[in-house]
Write a structure and sequence with these properties.
With 162 residues, the protein is mainly alpha-helical. The chain has 9 helices and no strands. Helix 1 packs across helix 3, helix 7 crosses helix 9 and helix 8 crosses helix 9. The protein starts with 6 loop residues before the first helix and ends with a helix.
């Protein structure tokens, strides 16, 4: 946890403990004296004394299972667990999948196979233009042209759905 970021705060961080005579805290006169001696505002002395006197609380609680129920992590909201958001994301994914399926269905068999081999390979290994060119006995450039035309046609089909 960052305690001292400014020059005045760093001065106070390294010197405040030596000025404290007891563990109860500084009196108003002591605060003024420390502020004057270190060249900082009295408010900064009080703020740093509060920071140094406070204790950090772990988010996940202690080691005991009973303490976990009262740990701050137990009552902080989980932003990813909103049922409405999860339902909306699932619906969006379903609509996208349906749109993609409809767009693929609008292609002829050769174009569909090229798109599936280049972009939708289930094993993650996309076919190269040269592999498809050898399979269809055409040039790699012709495969690229067929792919580009199919992509344009699919974009049009997806735009109609959206």
């Amino acid at each position: 946890v960052k305690v001292a970021t400014t020059k005045a705060q760093r001065k106070l961080f390294f010197n405040l403990r030596s000025f404290k005579k007891n563990s109860s805290g500084l009196s108003a006169d002591e605060v003024s004296a420390v502020a004057e001696q270190l060249g900082v505002k009295p408010e900064e002395v009080v703020e740093m004394e509060t920071r140094l006197g406070g204790q950090d609380i772990p988010l996940d609680g202690g080691r005991d299972e009973d303490e976990e129920r009262f740990a701050p992590i137990a009552y902080l909201p989980d932003p990813g667990a909103e049922p409405v958001d999860q339902l909306a994301q699932a619906e969006q994914a379903r609509l996208q999948a349906d749109g993609l399926r409809d767009a693929l269905d609008s292609l002829d068999a050769r174009s569909r196979h090229i798109i599936e081999a280049r972009w939708l390979s289930p094993d993650g290994k996309a076919s190269t233009l040269h592999e498809l060119a050898a399979q269809y006995s055409v040039s790699a450039e012709r495969i690229r042209q067929i792919e580009a035309k199919a992509m344009k046609q699919m974009r049009g089909a997806l735009a109609e759905v959206a």
